[in-house]
Write a structure and sequence with these properties.
heterodimer; A: alpha+beta; Cytochrome-c3 Hydrogenase, chain B; 2 domains; four-stranded mixed sheet; three-stranded antiparallel sheet; 18 helices; B: about 180 residues; five-stranded parallel sheet
Chain lengths: ~475, ~180
């Protein structure tokens, strides 16, 4: 077997994400591309599986936010089993929400403490050997411990609701398979320091303060780096509140005008389409009404805070007001403000976890409901990185016949490519050599999106990035790898 | 005495095994004291800068690039560990092994209900993209693997205990009942 495999001319070193940059005769950037290089074929190979396997199968797209896929699939199956996402029992919905906020809390904490904090604490231009969480642990031990404990808290919420920290089984078609025990509830509510929800709220506020302080000192970088006009799309609750579990799809243009008016996501195919390009395994989604050239949009924390009208928890709402006032209520198009938005959401997640833990429905009640089966359903959820679409159709033997997945990072495909183009042009136009600084700049732009390339190909930490520079004759003039 | 050196990578995996490694929580700080990390996605070392004692492999082998990385790990690591079901037997992505690759690609890029404007019937195919293999292969079919840690993902405790055993030279015991998919 091995021999056959070695026939492949393997010349490429490790690297999931890859950027290519083409220059003309005057060394002006004429083309940039972010290539996604892995393909797995989930949509085809789950055909033929019994539909109830979907929530545990498809979450294995991604070990970083498996809960998102688990819940999106379960929500689609709620429709298929005839219960519908609006009619699952209060206990089921609240347990699922608790699981989801737990995930938001752990995933956002991971991104901020493990991935972004080295840049803030040591500086974006610091020695690359220093920019990692181990070095943060050496020099800022308290902060590193906070990050580790915040992630642990989120993971333990997931374990309590899904049975397992990674790839659990909590959500089932039409409901949930367990409620929370009183012991679990009390552990999270008033457990020994530091693992209780009040401590988490305090630490989330601390992280937000850390970022705001950094922003004050580095205004130019945070406000102007990779800034470009974009439309924004996300789920919102029917009354316009930020909601990451259920609601309707809203999109706004760069001025804040609604371009998708709170539509029912069962009809997503009427509004959203995807384009295929030969140079990336990741497709390019767009709004049909604006076409494949103009219809691209951004998803994720920034998009969510740009589309929603308010945040339904008091501390996060206060931060949201400051955030919105910064751009006079208009959509915020500053790529680096994604970190800010993410931390506001982290605080909101902690507040929601507290609210849910105090809700009596979480401890007992009806777990699963039944209905009249249909053959097709769509599940939509806001994953930590943005809107996630799952769509399934089954046959008369209960086997999955069709599956369509549009994952968060795919929704951000065009914006990430835009960010790369913008940064490449501003840093590299007229240059013949790529410096480390230019490379870091491109990576920083991509990292702001917290791309979950496992859902499309993932790398934790800095994406292994290779930049190839071509001249106008398509000859390689320089290759630079981040290391 | 210099610290034992550890390297990690994710091939055709979901990063869940790396996440399970992070689930050792506070012990990650102890581990940082006990060992030195070399090439790994949890730091910025992208190429081996020295020979390593232990290499942790997550994920099976699904494309030409995975082969290259895996061989690079074999050359640079004394002990190579298949961490999790994908590395051990291809895992969930190996569900595609019974289906012609073309069908998987056509479903994603030609027949998907949201795919539009693909009159030219484009399936991604570019010199920048690594070649997809006919199947997803377990790591031990490509290089010699010394140790297998089962689970999807293996528990944080199992990963931690295995690491401590390997770097302290103690016998590694994986209980019989742990050898199951999940």
């Amino acid at each position: 077997m091995g021999q056959k495999l070695t026939i492949e001319p393997v010349t490429r070193v490790e690297g999931h994400g890859k950027v290519t940059i083409h220059l003309d005769d005057e060394n002006q950037v004429v083309q940039t591309r972010l290539h996604i290089v892995e393909f797995r074929g989930f949509e085809r190979f789950i055909q033929g599986r019994p539909y109830w396997e979907a929530p545990v199968l498809v979450q294995r797209l991604c070990g970083i936010c498996p809960v998102s896929h688990h819940l999106a699939a379960a929500k689609a199956l709620d429709v298929i089993v005839g219960v519908g996402p609006d009619n699952i029992s209060p206990t089921a919905e609240k347990m699922r929400r608790l699981m989801h906020y737990g995930q938001f809390f752990q995933s956002h904490s991971l991104h901020f403490f493990h991935l972004v904090s080295p840049d803030l604490l040591f500086g974006i231009d610091a020695d690359p050997a220093k920019r990692n969480v181990i070095e943060v642990a050496r020099e800022f031990k308290d902060l590193a411990v906070q990050g580790v404990m915040m992630r642990k808290f989120g993971q333990e919420i997931i374990e309590a609701t899904a049975g397992k920290k990674i790839h659990g089984t909590g959500a089932i078609p039409g409901g949930i398979n367990k409620s929370l025990s009183i012991e679990e509830k009390m552990k999270f509510l008033i457990g020994k320091d530091p693992l209780n929800v009040d401590q988490m709220i305090t630490w989330a506020q601390g992280a937000l303060d850390l970022f705001k302080d950094y922003h004050k000192k580095n205004k130019n970088l945070i406000d102007n780096f990779a800034k470009f006009p974009s439309s924004h799309l996300s789920l919102v609750r029917k009354d316009g509140a930020l909601d990451i579990y259920h609601g309707v799809i809203r999109a706004v243009d760069t001025e804040g005008n609604k371009i998708l008016h709170d539509i029912d996501y069962q009809d997503y195919l009427d509004y959203i389409a995807e384009e295929v390009k030969s140079w990336s395994y990741m497709k390019f989604p767009y709004l049909r009404s604006l076409g494949n050239k103009e219809g691209w949009y951004t998803v994720g924390p920034l998009a969510r805070l740009n589309t929603c009208d308010f945040i339904p928890t008091p501390l996060a709402q206060k931060e949201f007001e400051i955030f919105r006032a910064y751009t006079n209520g208009k959509p915020n198009n500053m790529s680096m403000h994604m970190h800010w938005a993410r931390l506001i959401e982290t605080l909101h997640a902690a507040e929601m976890i507290k609210e849910l833990l105090d809700d009596p429905d979480i401890l007992e009640g009806e777990l699963v409901r039944k209905g009249n089966k249909t053959i097709e359903g769509v599940g939509l959820i806001e994953a930590p990185r943005g809107t996630l679409f799952h769509h399934y159709r089954i046959n008369k033997d209960d086997q999955i016949e069709m599956a369509n997945l549009i994952v968060s990072t795919t929704n951000n495909n065009t914006p990430m490519n835009r960010a790369v183009e913008l940064v490449a042009k501003s840093y590299m136009n007229g240059q013949e050599k790529i410096t480390e600084g230019m490379l870091n700049a491109v990576e920083t732009a991509i990292r702001a999106y917290d791309p979950c390339l496992s859902c499309a190909t993932h790398a934790l930490g800095k994406m292994p990035l290779e930049i190839t520079l071509y001249n106008s004759n398509d000859e390689v003039i320089d290759i630079k790898r981040s290391e | 005495m210099s610290k034992p050196i550890i390297a990690t990578t994710s091939l055709a995996g979901c990063f869940g095994c790396h996440m399970s490694l992070l689930d050792i929580d506070e012990r990650i700080l102890e581990l940082a004291e006990l060992v030195e990390f070399n090439k790994s996605p949890i730091n910025d070392i992208k190429k081996f800068t020295k020979k390593c004692d232990v290499g942790l492999i997550e994920g099976g082998v699904c494309n030409s690039e995975n082969i290259h990385v895996l061989k690079d790990f074999r050359e640079n690591c004394k002990i190579l560990v298949s961490v999790g079901e994908c590395a051990i037997m291809g895992g969930l992505p190996a569900l595609r092994n019974n289906i012609p690759l073309r069908e998987c690609l056509e479903e994603a890029y030609l027949d998907g209900p949201s795919v539009e404007n693909n009159e030219e019937r484009i399936i991604p195919n570019d010199e920048e993209l690594p070649l997809i293999l006919d199947k997803v292969y377990p790591c031990h079919e490509v290089v010699k693997i010394d140790i297998h840690l089962p689970g999807c993902p293996p528990s944080a405790d199992m990963i931690y205990e295995a690491l401590v055993s390997l770097i302290t030279g103690k016998e590694l015991k994986v209980p019989y009942e742990a050898f199951k998919y999940d």
